[in-house]
Amino acid sequence: MTLSQSVCEVLRDHVVLESECIDRMYLNVYVPQLQRVGGVVWYLRGHLGQRFASTATVAPKTVAFVASIEKFVAEQGVDLVSLGKHQRKDDITRQYLQQFDADEGVLYVGRAQEKARVVRTERRRCARTGMSYPWVVDGSAMVNHYYFYCVDGDFGPFFLKFCSYFPYNAKLCINGNEYAKCQLRKRGIPFEALDNGILSCANPKALQRICEGLDDKKIDRLLRKWLARLPHPFDRHDRSAGYRYALSILQAEFALTQVLDRPVMGRIFFEQVIRENLDLGRPGQVQLIFDRRVNRPRALSHPGDYRRGHPFAACGLQAFTHQAVPQGGAGAADRDHHQRHPRLRRGTTAAQLARVASHRLCRQSAHARDRADQPRLRLGRRRVPGPAASAPG
């Protein structure tokens, strides 16, 4: 007789390799001073010396940037590929990777029209004098973006995407599994690779140390290295004045890879995980998930309160500061709490301190996990006893 194994037993007795690392990471590449209209106005007037702020001055920069990309493509002998709206870029990159035999370099450059945040100049008219004047505003437009698909000796395949319109924001996409593969090759550690992971490794501890060693400084070095090689929209005068690219995380994926000793263990693991969740998809249970009506346009105070027509929460949170054990009290026996007159209700609100990230990349403020940052309950003007809130930094 064969006894079924639980998920815990499968993970405890049949995992031969386990690694945890950053998977895909998509990062913003931007000049911080140019993300607000006020900063753009200062760039145009204070840095470029314009009398009136107008984005027409940066039009030659855009033309020169696009020309430098076309010149780079011609000099390097790489293809400039026009990318369609629904075209899979990964399939194109995979074909170029099969033909690429160098340690690092540019695979190809892609060009696609995408929506982006841009800065424009509007003509406005003074109501008092009737004279027209330029006014810088934020907007969006469909403009050309240039994808530089590259291979790095330390990070493997990645891409850097530039917007061709001022303020030339960009995106950087890396893969932590590819970084681990490159580092294992450099150290001469034998391993067997998967499409997006590692199947086996001669030194699992070294593999995990490599994965944990990928930090913000290494990612920043990767960006600076390739900004120096690829066409750059800002000249030396701009960069020396402090207009330099910075990084922030837009999207991060984290992978826990657990390799089992036999394929049948994967089947057992899968069946045990979904066994308790099969009933949710049955026809008789579907209404529990999808049969929820949202009353519009009035906003609801509680996201799950779709059974009533008014915006009060279905399950209000109550606090009894004067009772160790809630004893209840006199109330209307013939009516529910949500049906009473609003003047008879004593609502509670939760206040949460704002959490400020001290760094833009791969870090979190130390006080963000402190108990003082947890929501507080307020009942009228009285405050539920709890740890004192820390003063803002």
Automatic annotation (TrEMBL):
Superkingdom of source: Bacteria
Record field: compositional bias (Basic and acidic residues): 367-376
UniProt-annotated stretches for the region Disordered: 326-393
Protein name (record): Uncharacterized protein
Lineage, broadest ranks: Bacteria, Pseudomonadati, Pseudomonadota, Betaproteobacteria, Burkholderiales
